[in-house]
């Protein structure tokens, strides 16, 4: 009887672990797919993936002070930064636009997106994705 309980608990633990693992994997793929799809769309529109392109990353933040802090950190990492007030947003009324010239490969963009997600989570903000910089149409 004791062995049956041990096997039952072990089976339940394995099942819970698999569910958590699959959920984490699915959430990561969702972000990665968006980056991949946008890069593919830009390449189809004629953007050369081997030439540096200005890429604008967006982070929504709760206060001007937090936006200034985030902007300073990103400037130190080589981004050109612009802070804008969002009139239509109550909870996250400030946006930091971080522009960086980089090649449009999935690995590089995912790396910066991961960095921006972490920075947003750390400061109570939200990462709103990226777009090609001025002068580069999507699609």
| Global Rg | 20 Å
What is the 3D form?
extended
CATH superfamily: RraB-like
The computed structural class is alpha+beta
DSSP strand count: 4
Distance between the termini: 64 Å
Predict the CATH topology: Alpha-Beta Plaits
Q: Which residues sit in consecutive blocks of at least 5 with pLDDT less than 50?
A: none
* Contiguous helical run count: 3
How do the helices and strands follow one another from N- to C-terminus?
HEHEEHE
Proportion in helices:
40-55%
Q: Would you identify the CATH architecture?
A: 2-Layer Sandwich
Strand content: 15-25%
**Count of discrete structural domains:** 1
Biggest sheet details: 4 strands, antiparallel
Description:
The chain starts with a helix and ends in a 7-residue tail after the last strand. The chain has one domain: Alpha-Beta Plaits (2-Layer Sandwich), CATH 3.30.70.970. A hairpin with an 8-residue loop joins strand 2 and strand 3. Helices cover 53% and strands 22% of the residues. By secondary structure, it is α+β, with helices and mostly antiparallel strands. It has a four-stranded antiparallel sheet with strand order 2-3-1-4, covered by helices on one side. It has three helices and four strands, in the order H-E-H-E-E-H-E.
Summary, kept brief:
The chain is α+β, with helices and mostly antiparallel strands and 139 residues long. 53% of the residues lie in helices and 22% in strands. The chain has a single domain, classed as Alpha-Beta Plaits (2-Layer Sandwich).
């Amino acid at each position: 009887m004791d062995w049956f309980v041990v096997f039952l608990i072990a089976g339940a633990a394995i099942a819970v672990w698999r569910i958590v693992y699959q959920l984490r994997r699915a959430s990561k793929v969702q972000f990665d797919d968006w980056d991949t799809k946008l890069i593919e769309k830009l390449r189809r529109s004629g953007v050369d993936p081997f030439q540096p392109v200005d890429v604008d990353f967006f982070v929504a933040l709760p206060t001007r002070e937090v936006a200034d802090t985030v902007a300073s950190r990103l400037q130190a990492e080589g981004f050109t930064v612009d802070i804008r007030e969002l009139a239509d947003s109550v909870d996250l009324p400030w946006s930091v636009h971080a522009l960086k010239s980089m090649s449009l490969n999935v690995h590089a963009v995912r790396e910066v997106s991961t960095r921006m997600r972490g920075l947003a989570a750390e400061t109570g903000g939200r990462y709103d994705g990226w777009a090609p910089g001025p002068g580069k149409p999507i699609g």
